[in-house]
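Lecture 7 notes: from sequence to structure.
We start with the chain below.
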Amino acid sequence: MGSHGHLTDAPPPRRQTTPPSPEMGQMVCGTCRCLLSYPRGVRYVKCAQCRTVNLLLEAHQVGQVKCGNCSVLLMYPYGAPSVKCSCCHSVTEIGNQR
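Predicted structure tokens for the same chain:
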């Protein structure tokens, strides 16, 4: 403050923003849909919000299919016969949709 009790004209301090680290990844929790950050290379990520342990798969290990009930895009591990939708809880058979 100046001698008369007024604030000086100095600019506010700049907030340091750190770009996301290339060693970190992100995924959506399969139960509560919160965005989770994790260190690359881990196999499981525990959600701090709902405590669900999520299996982490690489892109070449998963397939995608639309939910047969609500059309949300679902991911599943290759070889799974079906996948349960985290939104409407409907079970979609995988069959030959690969």
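Points to note: Strands lie at 24-28, 35-39, 44-46, 53-55, 62-66, 73-77, 82-84, 91-93. The chain has a mean pLDDT of 81.
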